[in-house]
Amino acid sequence: MHIETLVTHAGREVEQGTGALTPSITLATTFERNAEGGYADGHSYSRMSNPNRAALESALAQLEGGAAALAFASGMAAITSLMMAFESGAHVILPDDLYTGTRRLVGEVLARWGLTVSFTDQTDPENVRTAITTQTRLVYLETPSNPRLMVSDIAALAAIAHEAGALCAVDNTWATPVLQHPLALGADVVIHATTKYIGGHSDVLGGALVLRDAPESPLAEKLRTVQGLGGAVPSPFDCWLLLRSLPTLPLRVRAQSASAALIADFLEAHPHVERVHYPGLASHAGHCIAARQMTGGFGGMLSFEVAGGVAQALAVANRVHLFTQATSLGGVESLIEHRASVEGAGTRAPENLLRLSVGLEHPDDLIADLAQALG
Ligand SMILES: *Cc1c(COP(=O)(O)O)cnc(C)c1O
What we know:
Layout: H1 3-9, H2 51-64, E1 68-72, H3 75-83, E2 91-95, H4 100-109, E3 116-120, H5 125-131, E4 136-142, H6 154-163, E5 167-171, H7 176-179, E6 189-193, E7 207-211, H8 218-230, H9 236-245, H10 249-268, E8 273-277, H11 287-293, E9 301-306, H12 310-319, E10 324-325, E11 335-338, H13 339-343, E12 353-357, H14 363-374
Parallel strand pairs: 2-3, 2-4, 4-5, 5-6, 10-11
Antiparallel strand pairs: 1-7, 6-7, 8-9, 9-12, 11-12
Helix pairs in contact: 2-9, 12-14
The structure holds pyridoxal-5'-phosphate (PLP).
C-alpha cells in the first residue's frame, strides 16, 4: 500500500465494545492476570507494554517497512537504548556532522560505560571502511545530517557494516518514512526522534527504533529488554498524540519539502548568502546520492551561511518575523536558529550558519520574510 493509505489505517481499528473510531487512551498501569497466568491482550504492566504504545509501534513498523518497532520517551532515549544493546568495549562509527545530542551522549555518558567511538566523514564510504575495527558493532548514519545536510550512501555503508559483521542504523528523523526508507536500502535499524516530523506540532517528545528483524530476533529481544527495564517509555497520551499525527505526515512533509526547495533556490541566488546546504540543489555535493535514495523530495530542513560572518547571521535571525528563533524542527511553524549558539562550546557548526525548519506557511510569504531580513 501507499504511504497515504498506511498512515490513515496503520495502528487504528474500530474499538471493541464502544465502536469508537478514535482509539481511547488507556491510562491503566496494570492489567488483570487470568487463571492460567496469562493476560487477555498481552499487556501486564504499562512500562512493559500498553495498548496505545502497541498501536503506535505497529504503525511505525509498517511505515518504515520494518518487522518490529519500539517507542521511547524521546529520540535520545531511543538512541541510548540502541547503544545499550551492545556489550562494553563495543566500537561505533558515527558521522562527523551529527545531531549534537548524539555526539554528547556517546562522549559524555556512554564512554564511561566502555563504548568506543570514531567520527568520520561518511560522505566517502572509504573513510568508514578504514575506521572499522574488530570491535565495530555498529555503523551509525544520519542522512541528511544536522546541521550541514551532508548525505551518505545508505546502501554502500550498510554493505560495509555487514562485511564487518556490524549493524547499520540510520537516524531517519529529518527525511521521515515519506522520503527515505533505510531498511529497504539495507540498514538494520531506523531511528526516529518522533518529537520532530512524526509528531509534527511541537507538542510531544518521543523516539522510536524500527527493526528489519522479526520481533523474536535476538536484537529485538535485547532492545525490548532495555526498553522495558530501562523504562524510558512514552506515556499512553504521548503515543496517542503521535498516532493522531500520522495521517497528515505525508501531506505535511511534502509541503514542507516543496517549500524548502523554493527557499533553497531563493537563497542560493541571493548576494548576501555565501552557501546553501540543501540536498535538493544540483550544487550540493550529495545531490546525486540523495536523488537516488530519497523519493518525492529532499526534506523540509536546510541551512545557509550568511555573507559577512556571525554578526550578519545573527542580524538576519533577529530580523525575520515569520520564522521563530527556536531550536527543534518538523513542526507546522517555521523556525530559524543560529546553530553554533544553540550547540555551544565544541560546536562544529560554521559560525555564520543559520538553520531553517520550514513549516506550512505559504512559501512566498517565507521567501518575502527572508528577503527583507537579508536585505
Ligand atoms: C531532535 C533529534 C534527536 C533527539 O530527539 P529528542 O526527542 O529531542 O530526544 C535525534 N536525532 C535527530 C536527527 C534530531 O533532530
